[in-house]
Amino acid sequence: MKTESAFIPSGGITSPEGYLAGATSAGIKYTNRPDLGILLSEAPCMAAAVFCTNKVKAAPVILSAQRLQDGKARAVVINSGCANACTGEQGTKDAVEMAELTARHVGVAMDDVLVASTGVIGTLLPMERIREGIPKVKLTADGGHELARAIMTTDTVPKETAVRAGDFIIGGMAKGSGMIHPYLATMLCFLTTDAGVDADYLGAALKEAMDISFNMVSIDGDESTNDMVLIMANGRAGGKPVVPGSRQAEVFQQALNKACVHLAKAIARDGEGATKFIEVNVSGAASVADARLAARTIVSSSLVKAAVHGSDPNWGRVIAAAGRSGAELEADKLYLEIGGICLVKDGAPVPYDNDKVVKHLNGDEVRIDLKLNVGSAAATAWGCDLSEEYVTINSEYTT
Amino acid sequence: MKTESAFIPSGGITSPEGYLAGATSAGIKYTNRPDLGILLSEAPCMAAAVFCTNKVKAAPVILSAQRLQDGKARAVVINSGCANACTGEQGTKDAVEMAELTARHVGVAMDDVLVASTGVIGTLLPMERIREGIPKVKLTADGGHELARAIMTTDTVPKETAVRAGDFIIGGMAKGSGMIHPYLATMLCFLTTDAGVDADYLGAALKEAMDISFNMVSIDGDESTNDMVLIMANGRAGGKPVVPGSRQAEVFQQALNKACVHLAKAIARDGEGATKFIEVNVSGAASVADARLAARTIVSSSLVKAAVHGSDPNWGRVIAAAGRSGAELEADKLYLEIGGICLVKDGAPVPYDNDKVVKHLNGDEVRIDLKLNVGSAAATAWGCDLSEEYVTINSEYTT
Question: ipTM value of the model?
Answer without folding.
Answer: 0.72
